[in-house]
Design brief:
There is one protein chain. By secondary structure, the protein is mainly α. Among the domains are: 65 residues, Arc Repressor Mutant, subunit A; 148 residues, no CATH class. It has 22 helices and eleven strands. The strands form four sheets. It has a three-stranded antiparallel sheet with strand order 1-3-2. A three-stranded antiparallel sheet has the order 4-6-5. A three-stranded antiparallel sheet has the order 7-9-8. A hairpin with a 3-residue loop joins β5 and β6. α6 packs antiparallel against α21. The longest helix has 24 residues. The relative contact order is 0.13.
């Protein structure tokens, strides 16, 4: 009997110890970061995000070149100091060598050092983009009006608009050219907040309403099924778990206050189903904001600046990850970019616009890489003829210094260098010595050269 009691105590203590181990075992918490890492990838949108990152870097180089007072070119040695400013992981020489259709390297006729500038075709596309943005001025005004209609108090911070200026297709001086010009529509408060002077209710139609109307007419669905639904397009390989379809169907039917609707009684989060309706309204606002952009994409960090103005007091990234059929977050590059899935098909915009077409041409020029097109071959033949002509003139007895003018003209015409690869290999040694300097000394030297 005594042996039986001791064995019973031993088994109970062993069970308690096992229970304590199970109780104190850490459980995996599903956070926004884990969801971001475990999401189903979209290879086409990821590739597009990588290309857009390259285009953004080239536009940053163009902005640095435009600040030069001595001319629209800069020495290659100075460009090597821009590596930390641009956030590049490769040498500037290798980066320039990858895109000969965008960058033109030539020898300075007086200092005899290597200089770089943009090609004539890239300059033409940049000027074309500015002219198209000016032509689409009324569309830009309509976009700002719609954003003000979505906002909680009919006002937005100018700083938030400046962050997504390029995404909205606004000119660089939009404060004066749009907000100041259309004073009957916009009103500036303390020069930092823009308000809507006149509320135009005719603009209050969300982009998703057109899709709902087509679904109702073409597929003969009931109004109950379509009235509050969103287009869903999951990426390839997305796993649909048990009960997911039923939850998605109930979420599509869930009523919510649409972005342009105004009701005295706002959504009460603490009521039954209030959290779901509040989140669905936030999904509708982000969906409409992305629909107003030119390329239907924006960086997540810049999207967060609209939380208070658009009454979205939620974790924006976590909300985007909850709806992978509507939004897609790409982590390619140094930033996280969100795409509107329904707007893209095979990496291209379904409904392009004039501003997107020009930027797509820039992207196509970048994607040419080092490939030699017929147009570039024709320019090289012209350059060889001009070089031969310069030698004959010099033999004919012209004055000293006459050879400088044809070289300057050939460099201004954007002719590509025949020995571009050799040039890049020569000055890559200078890049290595410059990259060893500290970032503080590099920025100090860069600012000194600008001044």
């Amino acid at each position: 009997m005594i042996v039986f009691k001791t064995l019973r105590k031993h088994t109970l203590s062993h069970q308690i110890s096992i229970g304590e181990q199970r109780r104190w075992k850490k459980k995996l918490v599903e956070s926004a970061q884990t969801r971001l890492e475990n999401r189903t990838r979209d290879s086409k949108l990821d590739k597009l995000a990588t290309k857009l990152k390259t285009l953004k870097t080239i536009l940053s180089i163009h902005q640095l070149l435009s600040t030069r007072k001595r001319g629209p070119f800069v020495s290659v040695q100075l460009m090597s100091r821009w590596k930390n400013i641009l956030g590049l992981n490769v040498h500037m020489g290798k980066f320039i060598h990858k895109y000969p259709h965008v960058f033109h390297v030539f020898t300075h006729p007086l200092k005899r050092n290597f200089c770089c500038k943009l090609t004539a075709r890239m300059k033409y596309l940049l000027d074309l983009e500015d002219s198209v943005i000016k032509q689409c001025e009324f569309d830009a005004v309509s976009r700002i009006k719609k954003l003000l209609l979505i906002s909680q108090n009919g006002s937005l911070h100018v700083h938030a608009l400046r962050l997504i200026r390029r995404e909205l297709g606004l000119p660089e001086d939009f404060r004066e050219s749009i907000l100041g010009k259309y004073s009957s529509d916009f009103r500036l408060v303390d020069l930092e907040i823009v308000e809507l002077a006149n509320r135009d209710e005719n603009l209050g139609d969300a982009a998703v309403e057109k899709w709902r109307e087509n679904e109702y007419e073409e597929k003969w669905l009931s109004e109950f099924e379509v009235k509050f639904a969103f287009p869903i397009n999951f990426p390839t390989g997305f796993e649909i778990g048990k009960g997911f379809r039923e939850k998605l169907k109930n979420w599509q039917r869930l009523p919510y206050i649409k972005p342009y609707e105004r009701k005295q009684n706002s959504v009460r989060v603490r009521t039954c189903g209030g959290i779901e309706r509040f989140e669905k309204r936030a999904v509708g606002i982000i969906h409409e904001l992305l629909s107003l952009t030119v390329e239907k994409t924006v960086e997540v960090e810049r999207l967060v600046h609209f939380r208070k103005d658009l009454a979205m007091e939620i974790n924006v990234r976590e909300l985007l990850l909850k709806h992978p059929g509507i939004f897609y977050i790409s982590t390619k590059g140094s930033t996280q970019t969100v795409f509107l899935r329904e707007a893209y098909s095979k990496g291209c915009l379904v409904e392009p616009n004039p501003v997107y077409d020009v930027r797509r041409k820039m992207l196509d020029l970048i994607l040419l890489g080092c490939r030699n097109t017929r147009e570039l071959q024709h320019e090289e033949d012209i350059k060889e003829q001009s070089d031969n002509g310069v030698g004959k003139i010099h033999e004919g007895g012209t004055g000293d210094g006459d050879w400088v003018i044809p070289i300057l003209e050939s460099s201004q015409n954007g002719n590509s260098d025949d020995h571009f690869g050799q040039i890049c290999s020569l000055f890559e040694e200078d890049f290595d010595s410059c990259s060893e300097q500290s970032s503080s000394e590099s920025e100090h030297a860069f600012r000194g050269d600008l001044n």
